[in-house]
Write a structure and sequence with these properties.
Blueprint lengths: L3 E4 L4 E4 L7 E6 L10 H19 L3 E6 L6 H10 L3 H18 L15 H13 L3 E4 L2 E4 L36 E6 L17 E3 L1 H13 L3 E7 L3 H16 L4 E7 L2 E3 L6 H10 L4 H7 L2 H9 L7 E3 L1 H25 L10 H4 L6 H22 L4 H21 L8 H18 L17 H19 L3 H13 L2 E6 L2 E6 L2
Parallel strand pairs: 3-4, 3-9, 9-10, 11-12
Antiparallel strand pairs: 1-2, 5-6, 6-7, 7-8, 13-14
Helix pairs in contact: 2-3, 4-5, 5-6, 9-10, 10-13, 10-14, 12-13, 12-14, 13-14, 15-16
This protein binds zinc ion.
Zinc ion binds next to α6.
Length: about 500
């Protein structure tokens, strides 16, 4: 199977072939750290964490870089408003961002370079562009001359007359062309001293676009594989990155450009308190969302949609996704009860434990599960179609549930059937791990232990005896009292099973 990715540059799905065999470099534009992170800040990291996990699964050696923009107009304004320094604000917001994405399972970033720590690299790139005649100094500012880049606009596919729309330059110098953008901005007298850096053109600070060009070349080389970011960054930010880097090094910049859809809040479909919070903060913060929903639910919510599509966030959508996630949690509970084994502890998968088997009934179950596995991998190979991959996991869960029912594994002794079902669950988990799911037991379900199992067996046996003796009031009392504490009983052909209600 071969991986194909949609490349914004060509507007087509292309066969993925890394620049250097076996190695993949990914650069994702990170946050400007001036206000608390919202769900939009988590979308890129969750998607590219999943992409990296899949590339690693396929055997690539992957380096992933996410930059932190800690020198910017917005930081200057906000730090003044809060009566603090730019870097105190940046460090505080960065720490909150990193903690939130860590909780969301984003654990695979290799480098998190900050703009303020790469000033020499940025100045060096500006100097090279000036030497090549592609940039010029004006009033202490340095501008990139867009007329020096003959294929400017190739990523966003905009016509030259549209290119000015969307650019917003606050620098003070005179520009040669309206589309020219600042590589370096001269310091203004009222700007804090910590963002006034020495340069050959006087004191100043870098523009936003140049930091991504300078940091990506440092960590990934002049040409690398995947550049990611939200759709809103395509123009002018990514277009300008391409212009700077390709003009500076005379080499192609990123080979594949992957743009993720943006998150939309449906403000009519979120609770009053959330609407209030969103009004106060401008957006719903990640900290707030993580206090209401499990990190696994939020991650699942984001990856169940294809990354290029917009995601609508509403209470309704979250509730629907929670129901989907519960399907898997319920399967894990069933398997734990049937096998008396922790399904969150890694064990052999179907392929590892049952590579050869003579039994035909086993074979068809194994074949069905491995077929779902194949569909999962095909979906991921199709431009990281995580929504399709999640669909295959659902189908696998259905197959395993049916197998548990058919063989009455929760109520009858069948060691081989239980081993098969557990190995199937481990196959499911090994795939889910690529999506960053089901690696650990969700905290809510942490109280399941064998004593609870044993006590439930006693209660179920008592209820069965009561029914046999036609003492239905007593039998119903057992069921109703259990329901009141959040446990429901299901009468199945092989006997009664129980589950916690979510
Ligand atoms: Zn960037």
């Amino acid at each position: 199977m071969s991986l194909r990715v949609y490349n914004t540059l060509s507007q087509e799905k292309e066969l993925f072939e890394p620049v250097r065999p076996g190695k993949v470099g990914i650069y994702l534009c990170g946050p400007t750290v001036y206000k608390p992170s919202h769900i939009g800040h988590a979308v890129g990291p969750i998607i590219f964490d999943t992409i990296k996990r899949y590339l690693v699964y396929k055997g690539f050696d992957v380096t992933w870089v996410v930059n932190i923009t800690d020198v910017d107009d917005k930081l200057i304004v906000e730090s003044k408003a809060q009566g603090t320094t730019v870097y105190e604000l940046a460090d505080r917001i960065t720490a909150g961002y990193l903690e939130a994405i860590r909780q969301l399972g984003v654990t695979s970033i290799d480098h998190l370079p900050k703009a303020s720590e790469h000033i020499p690299e940025i100045i060096d790139m500006c100097r090279r562009l000036i030497d090549k005649g592609a940039a010029y100094v004006s009033g202490g500012d340095v501008y990139f001359d867009v007329s020096a880049d003959t294929d400017y606009g190739k990523l966003s596919h905009r016509k030259p007359e549209e290119q000015q729309a969307g650019t917003r330059e606050l620098a003070s110098g005179e520009k040669r062309n309206p589309g020219d953008f600042a590589l370096w901005k001269a310091s203004k007298p009222d700007e804090p001293p910590e963002v006034q850096f020495d340069s050959p053109w006087g004191k100043g600070r870098p523009g936003w676009h140049i930091e991504c060009s300078a940091m990506s070349v440092k960590y990934l080389g002049e040409t690398f594989d995947i550049h990611g970011g939200g759709m809103d960054l395509m123009f002018p930010h990514h277009e300008n990155e391409i212009a700077q880097s390709e003009t500076c090094f005379d080499k192609p910049f990123a080979k594949y450009w992957l743009h993720n859809g943006l998150t939309r809040f449906n403000t009519k479909k979120i609770s009053k308190s959330d609407q209030e919070m969103a009004r106060k903060m401008g957006e719903l913060t990640l900290t707030h969302l993580l206090s209401k929903h499990s990190p696994e639910l939020l991650r699942y919510f984001i990856i169940s949609t294809h990354y290029r599509r917009p995601i609508e966030f509403s209470d309704e959508e979250i509730a629907a996704k929670k129901k989907g996630l519960d399907t898997f949690y319920r399967l894990f509970e069933r398997i734990e009860r049937a096998c008396r084994q922790d399904p969150y502890q890694d064990g052999p998968t179907l392929e590892q434990a049952f590579s050869s088997t003579e039994n035909h009934a086993d074979q068809s179950f194994i074949r069905e599960c491995l077929d779902h596995q194949l569909r999962f991998l095909e979906a991921m190979d199709d431009d990281f179609n995580t929504g399709g991959a999640v669909g295959s996991l659902f189908e696998m869960a259905t197959t395993i549930n049916r197998f548990i029912d058919e063989w009455r594994l929760e109520t009858e002794e069948n060691p081989r059937g239980r081993d098969l079902a557990m190995a199937a669950v481990q196959t499911l988990r090994s795939l889910a791990r690529i999506l960053g799911l089901f690696d650990q037991r969700p905290p809510r379900a942490a109280t399941t232990d064998h004593l609870v199992d044993d006590l439930m067996d006693v209660l179920i046996a008592l209820r069965a005896e009561a029914r046999k003796a036609k003492q239905y009031t007593l039998a119903d009392l057992v069921r109703d009292r259990l329901k009141a504490v959040g446990i429901s009983l299901e009468d199945r052909p092989g006997g009664t099973v129980w589950r916690r209600e979510s």
